[in-house]
Amino acid sequence: MITEFGRTRIIANPRAQSGQGEVAAQRLQRFLSLYLHDADAFDLVFTEKPRHATELAAASTDVDTVCALGGDGVIHEVVALALLPIGSGNDFARTLGIEDWHGSDLAALLSCTKTRVDLIRIEHESGLEFAVETFAIGLDAAIGLGANEVHKASKLAGAPLYVASAAGAFGKSYRMYPMTVTFDDEGPQRLQSIVMAVQNGPTYGSGFRICPSADPADGLLDVCYACGPFPRAKALGIFLAAKQGLHTRFKRIEMRRVKRVAFDLEAPDYPIEADGERVCAQHLDVSVMPSELVVFRPRSAKRT
After folding, report:
1. Given CA atoms 130, 133, 137, 140 in this order, what sign does their dihedral have?
2. Cα(66)–Cα(7) distance, rounded to whole angstroms?
3. Residue 224 to residues 118, 131, 194: CA-CA distances in angstroms?
4. pLDDT at 154
5. Positive/negative CA dihedral, 203, 206, 207, 208
6. In this predicted model, what pLDDT tens digit does every residue of 50-84 receive, in sequence order?
7. Which residues of 272-292 are buried (b: 16+ CB within 10 A; e: fewer)?
């Protein structure tokens, strides 16, 4: 095979981007067959249910590279070595400088370099999870999780999808989230939090620059949090400012860079998400795993 991928398994979410995942996967399959003249160098499998991508990736011990085709959700499940972003958010792909794959030159996939990036480790009472881009608790998590339902109903994607989801989160469900937080080896702090985002890369919500300076290869986690009480109108203005990373100028917005942060939540029903996937827990330990993940990216990719 003429690329660094070796024998490759493509794990695709056929429902990504309103059903375009299956079309994109089949297009990729045809392209590789024609270009590489080696139909045995790769295979294609589709996810059929939530967490199925994790099962498929874990079973892929017979291949050199696992490639995730979908949005941040399927990439979160696979923790992929290569990715083709066709989801609603694509924030991890954006962090790596990979543009939305639709309409792009597929041949660029055959000229890739390996890049090591950090991984977010999430340990809680129900088990262990990992995230590549985002871990969030509170309002921002409610927006991310709500986006899944809004997408099913409206077929919106990208930033408009998350703005539409925010309209619901800023409605009757708007509230504070009391929690005890411990950064690194500091003493615990009792916070009335509204937003708590732990980032490996700069963006979430399809380009909202919540931690503008985050570097996925610096061995650190970037944290953005806001503590209340916070009037709803002011919080909405800060949310909109985050699209361009301008929220950092507001009072009560705190930015930290840490290796570990532990959370003890006052109630078990807080919205929590990791790369857009729901996490159910009350006591969580979130830490960075430096340079743990190897990803492929086209040499022509622009870092954003």
Report:
1. negative
2. 9
3. 18, 17, 11
4. 83
5. negative
6. 778 778 887 887 877 787 776 666 666 665 556 66
7. bbbbbbebebbebebbbeeee
Going by the DSSP 8-state scheme, the letter that residue 244 receives in this structure is G
pLDDT of 9-46, one tens digit each?
888 888 776 566 777 777 777 776 666 666 666 788 88
- Look at residue 1 in the predicted model and tell me its pLDDT: 41
pLDDT tens-place string over residues 240-298: 999 999 999 998 899 999 999 999 999 999 999 999 889 999 999 999 999 988 887 76
Q: Which two tokens stand for residue 33?
A: 């067959």
The alpha carbon torsion through 234, 236, 238, 239 (nearest 10 deg) reads: 160
Tell me how far the alpha carbon of residue 97 is from its chain's centroid: 14
Tell me how far apart the alpha carbons of residues 106 and 218 are, in angstroms, rounded to a whole number.
30
Please name every residue paired with 137 in a beta bridge, in sequence order, or none if there are none. 196, 272
Residue with token string 């398994």: 9
Residues 6+ apart with CB under 8 A from 87: 13, 16, 17, 70, 71, 72, 73, 74, 75
Residue among 254, 262, 256, 225 at smallest CA distance from 121: 262
CB atoms within 10 A of CB 25: 23
How far is it, in rounded angstroms, from Cα 22 to Cα 50?
A: 16
- How far apart, in whole angstroms, are the C-alpha atoms of residue 84 and residue 108? 11
* CA atoms of 98 and 101, how far apart (whole Å): 8
Residue 197 near residue 242 (C-beta atoms within 8 A)? no
Instruction: Answer whether 197's CB lies under 8 Å from 208's CB.
Output: no
Q: Are the beta carbons of 213 and 201 closer than 8 angstroms? A: no
The SS3 assignment for 218 reads coil
pLDDT score of 86: 56
DSSP state of 204: B
Q: Are 25 and 67 in contact (CB under 8 A)?
A: no
**Considering just the CA atoms, what is the radius of gyration of the chain in Å?**
19
Region at 10 (left for phi over 0; alpha for psi -120 to 50; beta for the rest)? beta
302: which 2 tokens?
Answer: 């622009």
